[in-house]
Structure formats: C-alpha cells, structure tokens
Amino acid sequence: MRTPFIAGNWKMNGSRELVERFGRQVTSAALPEGVSAALMVPFPYLEAAVKTFEQGPLVVGAQTLNDQPSGAFTGEVSGGMLAELGVRYVLVGHSERRALFHEDEAAVLSRVRAALATGLVPVLCLGETLEEREAERTEAVVLGQLEAVLDGLEADQRQRLVVAYEPVWAIGTGRTASPEQAQAVHEVIRARLGRYSASLAAEMQLLYGGSMKASNAAELLAQPDIDGGLVGGASLQVDDFLAICQSAG
Ligand code: PEP
Fold first, then answer.
1. Which pLDDT tens digit goes with each residue over 6-65?
2. Residue 129 host element (H or E)
C-alpha cells in the first residue's frame, strides 16, 4: 500500500531561522492523516532540522552524499555521517547534480549504493531535458536512468528506493508538466518496475517534481501513479509547503 509523500528540496537556500519557522508551524495537526513529509535542507541546517523534528511530523533528508565511507575527499560528506545525524533520506541523481556537478550514471549508482549501505533512503531523481522531450526520447532517457540504477542493485535494495520523476524543463521554470504528461511517464516507470517484480511496481513511491505548487498540486497528486511530490521553490514557504501536503491527503 503506497502512502503519499511530499519532500521539500531547499537546494542552496534557506536559513536556520527558516528551519525554526517550519518547526513552529508544521505540527502534526497541520499534516493530513496518512501523509508523510520530509525536508531536504543544506548540510549546515541538517542537525537543527533533525532536532526540531525529533518528535515529527517531518523527517529530514540531505541533498547529496559522497559514495565513499571516509577519506581524503575535501568538502565531501558521507552517508554514515548523515545517518549519524539522524538524517533519513538523501536525494541522488538530481538533474542539477547531473548537469552542474557532472554526476554520470556510474556516480548516481555508487551514491545510491552508499546511501543504502548506511541505512538512508535514496530518492532517485530521473528526468529528460526539453531537447530530449522534443526529440521524443523521454521514455528512453528516463527508463535508461532508472535501469542504470536498478540493474546494479539486489532485489531487496530496490525495494528501499523512492523515485522522483522530474522533467528538467519543469524544474525551477514555473512550467509544470500537465497532469496527463506526468501520469504518462509515471505509468511507464511503474510498468518498467514490474519487469523487476510485481511487488516493486505495486509498492514503490513515485514522486513528481517540477514547479509543483499549491495551485497545481491537487491535480498532479490525483493521478493514479503519482504518489507524492518533490518540491523545490514552493518548499521555502511554510504555507505553500503545507498547502501541497494538504492536497496529498
Ligand atoms: C527540484 O529542485 O527538485 C524541483 C522540483 O524544483 P522546483 O519545484 O522549484 O521546480
């Protein structure tokens, strides 16, 4: 049984004060029953966020991790360090990491493995660029990204992932995929999961991301294969984030 999940990705935004504001306003009563939600905050705010939400209702995620457990990797953070802080989720393969930090399929897979090895839940992001969509390569690109990770994992590891479909042309652009466009890709992803196992297809949470906001969340979240959202810009405003969570209930 899949439950709705809304994850906010602050990217390189926010402040300690914003963590505190979320802490004051995001109470259990503010989230609809059955909806779970997470905030992926920058590294310096992780500890404060974990502490703020020690009793719920939010869980805390990081936005990336290194694939090595320790060593001479100046500036990097390992999965073990995140887990030790009480972080539960980590984004892997976000299009900004793929494009700006040159994380290729091998890097994405090794980060997913590192997350799983330390007990974190990887939120694997997939998505096509506008050019790829216009060349009618959406399915090939998205399924290629999905298989590059799933083929490198054991069956029990695959069951521990969350997948987010985020068309690159919709991220931070204000241009959202229509509910039909988003559902069509989610359906294809779920069908492909079925090739691995029926339970994987039935149970994996598939999130949509790309300019999701209070005004369009309900119709996206009403689609049969969309189980939640990965929310960038709108997760920086408590009211907007809560309104999206309400739409998932
Ligand atoms: C994201 O960064 O994952 C994202 C979906 O951003 P936005 O909601 O701002 O498009």
1. 999 999 999 999 999 999 999 999 999 999 999 999 999 999 999 999 999 999 999 999
2. none
How many domains does the chain contain in total?
A: 1
On the question of pLDDT at 212 being above 90, the answer is: yes
* Separation of CA 93 and ligand 1 centre (Å): 13
Distance CA 103, CA 109 (A): 10
Predicted TM-score (pTM) of the model is: 0.97
Q: Has 166 been annotated as catalytic?
A: yes
Could you list the residue range(s) of the whole structural domain that residue 145 is in?
5-247
- pLDDT of 82 reads 98
Give the domain CATH number at 146.
3.20.20.70
Tokens (6 digits) for 104:
């290729």
The one catalytic residue among 76, 94, 139, 187 = 94
Q: Which of 128, 132, 166, 186 is catalytic?
A: 166
| Region for residue 223 given its phi and psi (left: phi exceeds 0; alpha: psi -120 to 50; beta: otherwise) | beta
Residue 147 annotated to the active site: no
